[in-house]
Design a protein that fits this description.
3-stranded parallel β-sheet, alpha/beta, about 40% helix, 11 strands, Aconitase, domain 3
């Protein structure tokens, strides 16, 4: 199968727009050929997962794009970095790690990326719309965009997401295409459930573990209190498995009915989930015995929106008033830069 390039694609590949863009297109072409894409398509935005420093190779890659005059061509948000550029005193890192971590984050900004530094770009002003083609990294963001919003992205890894942002193009393959978005495996909730936070996490854990590489459809899920509960479901499914898209019947935009979710095709398998299954999945999250002392409490992964952040702060205040401040535990709630600014 031969990848068909537009005149614009070819001009980027030929270096007519600079060394950096040529390099990005060369990598994107190789990736597209590897996955069997027939052509490239335009994207409306990108989210970059590679600004968390893991080693010299990631820094070299981005700085060479900067040196080659590179700039992103679409609105591009950034995932979390290894360092806090606004509050450097709060981060304790050895200089050997701090210096390259700073350089990597700043190099992405030089490419024209937005200084969002959040794993929840769907909570920013760069949230995509239904049906929009995007190229996102970060597992929880990918499953949220595909499932809750109905935007279209594959699970893009480091470097490929940035190449898409640089060129404004992505391979027409996988979840970008309508025919690849139908459900394949059905999860039926048996019994009556209230829309508790724990329910959505528990369902997500089970769906991720049991779906494999198939697109799950969930029926019997109660209407969520807010989209944060769907965020939790997707994040859990993307953590315990490789879920990039789920359909919740009567809830998510591509699953108004069960037939809509499966596009008229019978599910490959049906798995029933009862309350005991959910309780068991949640119990496995902790490996410490009941009653063990807490050293720290960390909430907000993925990052909290303002609504959840305010609820968390109220909870922490009650926790302290109840005498918990005399313990060794320290509560913490990671927020995106945008939410922290609005909260201060």
């Amino acid at each position: 199968m031969t990848l068909e390039l537009s005149a614009g694609d070819q001009s980027m590949l030929d270096g007519e727009h600079g060394r950096a863009l040529a390099a990005a297109m060369k990598i994107l072409v190789a990736f597209s050929n590897a996955v069997g894409a027939r052509k490239l398509l335009d994207i409306a935005g990108a989210h970059i997962d590679g600004c968390l420093y893991h080693g010299q190779a990631s820094l070299d890659f981005v700085e060479r794009l900067v040196e080659g005059g590179g700039r992103v061509r679409v609105p591009t948000t950034l995932n979390v970095g290894s360092f806090d550029l606004i509050h450097p005193g709060l981060v304790k890192m050895p200089p050997a790690q701090e210096v390259p971590a700073r350089r990597l984050m700043k190099a992405h900004l030089k490419l024209g990326c937005q200084a969002t530094f959040t794993c929840a770009p769907y909570q920013t002003r760069f949230r995509p719309g239904f049906g929009e083609q995007i190229a996102w990294g970060e597992s929880n963001a990918i499953v949220f965009a595909n499932s809750v919003i109905g935007a279209r992205t594959n699970r893009y890894g480091d470097f490929i997401d940035l190449c898409c942002a640089m060129t404004g193009r992505a391979p027409a393959w996988g979840l970008h295409l309508s025919e690849n978005r139908r459900g394949q495996i059905l999860f039926e909730l048996t019994g009556s459930f209230e829309p508790s936070d724990a329910l959505f996490v528990g369902v997500g854990l089970i769906v991720g573990q049991r779906s494999g590489d198939r697109i799950p459809v969930i029926s019997g899920l109660p209407q969520p209190r807010d989209e944060d509960q769907l965020k939790a479901l997707g994040a859990a499914a993307a953590t315990t498995g490789a879920v990039a898209l789920f359909h919740a019947v009567g809830i998510t935009p591509e699953a108004r009915t069960l037939d809509d979710a499966f596009r008229g095709v019978a599910p490959e398998a049906t798995i029933r989930i009862c309350r005991a299954d959910i309780d068991q999945a949640l119990a496995k999250l902790s490996s410490v015995p009941d009653g063990a002392p807490l050293a720290a409490v960390s909430l907000g992964t993925p990052h909290f929106p303002m609504t959840s952040g305010c609820a968390c702060w109220r909870c922490c205040a009650r926790w302290r008033r109840a005498g918990a401040s005399r313990s060794t535990s320290t509560p913490g709630a990671p927020l995106s830069r945008d939410c922290r600014t609005r909260a201060s």
